[in-house]
User: Fold Zinc finger BED domain-containing protein RICESLEEPER 2-like from Nicotiana tabacum.
Amino acid sequence: MANGIGRCLREWGINKIFTVTVDNASSNDVTVKELSKQLTKMGTNLMNGTHLHVRCMTHIMNLVVQDGLKKSSVSIERVRHAVRYVRQSPARLKRFQECFDAEQLNSKKTLCLDVPTRWNSTHLMLRRAVEFESAFSYYASSEIGLRHYLEHSYIDVGIPTGELLSSDWENVKRITKFLEIFYLLTLKISGSRYVTSHIYFLEICAVSVYLKQLIANEDIVLSEMAKNMKEKFDKYWGDPGKMNKIFFISCILDPRYKIESVGFALVKMFGVDTGATIQAEVTKYMTSLFSEYVKSSSKGVVLASSSDCSSLDTSTSGLSGSQASTQNIGLLESLMQDIKKYKSGSGGVDTRTELDKYLGEETKDDTKEFDILLW
Assistant:
């Protein structure tokens, strides 16, 4: 696969790759390592490819939520079976539509059945079913077929689905509200028409804090879901030392957040000591990365030193006007270089790098109108 990617890059005339985002298949680990070797041969592999491999946040989030739903409540199964029953024939759908009218539900929407392995489809199914709760109740009271189906269908071997109760609807409403947060987050970070890399880490931190709160929740259903999700979450984002530092750096390079916000988030996720250690490591890595860019973009122009100038023939009597002017400019530049060195040594010149200056500036206001690409 790496050879295929390399071939495409050469055909497209691309030889500089900062990161490669892939899902969590183990084969991708090998692919990125081989691709890193190819970039090294090209001489464009910054920091020896340390930050090249980026794991897809959306894919990880899908795995995290899916683990939360593995031991989903009986209520979800009952709603799923009820939706499946209604959708199994046109006659049932027509009868269900009549229940709409009886309950005065003014909606052109229809029921949707989920794909159990895709949690976002489960969320959409539950959200739609909640809208039609009264229609389901009316249908169940007038159609014995639904009650019979639920009583004789099974969630698992030996575990009957059972009747759809009002308590099930309450459970489903809470679960739907819970899943809505992750659904909207997935939509946000999956965007392709706007920048997303600078929000990844803060979003990850927000999820971590939220799951910790839910684990301590008195709601047993949500607490169990959160525990399962946190275990999967920690597999990928529980060890900051294994996280790609570009996650942190891209957030720091957002002028609304910078190092203070990232440092605060690190402490929230990993505690004071670990958070401070990771912040120091990120700052060090970012400085090294900046130096790499400075080195690669430098033109290597070295101005003549004052000692070199002493050996030059400063006479302009034998030169034309333009030649004399050019020589005088060179001498002036040399003098100005010496003056800058002198002022630098005496503290008269700001010797901070562009990165240091950026980090030292005040953060920008976080407004809805802010566009990082226009900043």
Notes: Residues 299-327 have pLDDT under 50 and may be disordered. The chain has 17 helices and four strands.
